[in-house]
Amino acid sequence: MVLRFTLKNSLIFLVLSSIITLILLTMYMVDRQWLKLTEMGQILSEQAQDLHTLRQQLAHIDKNQLGTTLAKEDKNKSISSIFSRAFYATEQLDYSTGDWLVQAFSVGLKTLTPLISTDAYAAEIQGYILDSLLSRNPETLEWEGMLAQSWEVSGDGLTFRFFLRKGLVFSDGQPLTAKDIVFSFNFIMNPVIAAPRERAYYDKLKSVTALNEDTVEFKFKEPYFNSLALAGGLPILAKHFYEPYLEQPEKFNQSKGLLLGSGPYRLRDPESWRPDQGLVELERNPRYWGSVQPPVDKLLWKIIANDSARLTTFRNGDIDVYGARPQEYKKLLTDETLKNHSQNFEYRSPTAGYNYIAWNEDKQGKSTFFADKRVRQAMTLLTDQKRIIDQIMAGYADPAVSPFNLNSPQHDPALIPQSFNLTKAKELLAQAGYTDQDGDGVIEDSSGNPFKFKLVFFQDMDDTRRMVLLLKDIYARAGILLDPEPTEWPVMLDKIKNRDFDAITLGWTGGIETDIYPMFHSGQIVAGGDNYISYRNPKLDSLIEKARSTVDESIRMSLWQACEHILYEDQPYTFLVRGKSLVFVDKRIKNLNITGLGLNLGITPIEWYIPKAEQKYMLH
C-alpha cells in the first residue's frame, strides 16, 4: 500500500505548524516578559538602595553646608563606629555587591520563630534578621550602638536610657520606635508565650518604658553584672507583626517561621517558612537602615545531614563554607585540589562553648542512677578526656573543666581536668551500691537490676558516634552497659523538652562572661527551662544569685569560682572538650579575618564581599 500526501494532509500539517509556531511565540513572549519583570525588580531594588543612600546622606548633612559636597573624610565621619569595619570593606578596589553566599546546616531546623526556637542554627538565621540596641566590636569586644545611637547609665547602675537612631524601619517599611522595644520585652515576659528560658534571663528587669518615640528606658530590680548586655542585647520584635499573636498564643507557640525584623536580610514572606522546604533563603532587605548595605543579594542554607555529602558539595562549589571534622581537617590541609579554591581558618572564639554529657537525675518523675553524686563522679572519671582529644578531636581541642573557659577569670586555675581513673570510679560505684553480684561482668544495684542506660546523641555527627562507641568500651570495663541511641535532631529536642532520656551529649555556646543560671539553677527545672536534668543544689543556687547581683568584678569572679568548685564536685554534667572551629571557605569570599569574636563571616554588620569578577549567581 502506498501512502499519498493529499491536500487534506497538507491542510492538517499547516494547521499543526501554525499551532506549534504560536505556542513557541507565546513561550518566547512569556520568557521576554519574565526577563523584563526580573529587570524591573532589579531596577526597583537599586532605586530602593539609592533612596536609602540619599536618606542616609540627608540625615548626616550639616544644614549650614547645604549645596556643598562632602569630602571623603566627611563621609568617613558620617559612618557610625559600628559600621566602620564594613565601610572599610567597601573602600577596597575590588569591592562589589551582588551574588549569593551558600552554606549548609547538618540538621533540619524545627522552627525559625524567635523565642520558640532553641538551637544555634535558628539563632544564626535570626542574627541576620533581628537587630538589637547594641553589638560588640569584633576586635575590642566593647559595646557599640546598633539601633541605639547612644546610651547613658544612672549612678546606681539600675537605669539604662537608650537613644535610638533616626530613620529606623523594619523590613516591611513600618517604622521602628521605642514602642517596639517595650513590646519586645513585654512579649517575652508574657506567660502565654512559650519562652521560659528568655523570661528567666530577663527576670532581673523591672520595666522597659518608652519615654518618647526615640528614647527607651530600662529599669532593673537590683544590680546585675550583665545589665548592659541584657538590655542592649534584647532582640527587637515588630509590635505590628507579633502583637496579634497575643490573642492566639498557641498559633505563635507552635509556629515554624514567624520572623520579621530590621536587620540586613529578610525572609521574602515572614510567615511562610516551613521545615519541609529543606533550605532557608534570605534576601537582602531593601529598606535596611544601616549606613553600609549588605554585600550579597541572598544568603542560602541547604540542609545536608551527611558529613561526606557536605564535603562533596563543597568540593563541587555548590556551597561556600565547610566546617571540617578534626581528623578530616588534618587530611584536607594537604589536598591540593581543595586548596586551589578555598581558604582555611582555625580559631576558638571567646564565645565558643563546650561539649558535655548531661546526666538526667529525674526521668519523667522517677529518680535515675545519676541522682547519686557518686555515680556522676564515677562517670566523669571513666570518661577519658585525653583519648577523646587525641583519637576523636585529633588534638584540635582542650579539656573542659566546667562551663567556664580556662582563660576566663571565672575559672579557678587550681581546678584541673579529672584524669581517667578506673579504680577510683569502681570504688565510688560500689559506695553507691553498684557491684557485680553474679560475676557476669555487669554491675547491679541491690535488687539485681543491671547498670544499663541509653546515651542519646545526634545521629548525623560521625565524630560524636565514634566518641560514644569509645565510651561504650571504656564504661564496660567498669561493668556499665551503655546503649547508644542515635537520634534525629527534632526528636532530640522533644526528648529534652519532655525529660525523656537517661543521658544526652550536646554542646552549649559560651559568652565573654558566662551566666550559668539557666542551666544549673534549680529555678530553671520548670517546663521549657534549660535545667532539663533536674539538678538541685541550694548552695549553688545562692552563689549564682549573689554572683549575678554583684557589680564589683573582683568579688563576682570569686563567687563564680566558688560556683565552679561545686559543679566540679557535683558533676551534673561530665564536661568534655572545647573544640576549635576548623573551616574552609571559598576563595571568592574576600576580606575574611579572625577577630576577637571568631571568624568575621557570621558577624553583622557584614565585612566580607565577593568581587564582581568572581560572582556566579544572578538575582532572580
UniProtKB/TrEMBL annotation:
The keyword Transport applies. GO terms for molecular function: peptide transmembrane transporter activity. One of its GO terms (cellular component) is ATP-binding cassette (ABC) transporter complex. Gene3D superfamilies: Dipeptide-binding Protein, Domain 1 (3.90.76.10), Dipeptide-binding Protein, Domain 3 (3.10.105.10), Periplasmic binding protein-like II (3.40.190.10). Residues 144-514 form the Solute-binding protein family domain. One of its GO terms (biological process) is peptide transport. Keywords: Membrane, Signal, Transmembrane, Transmembrane helix, Transport. InterPro entries: Peptide/Ni-bd (IPR030678), SBP_5 (IPR039424), SBP_5_dom (IPR000914). This is Extracellular solute-binding protein family 5. It comes from Candidatus Nitrosacidococcus tergens.
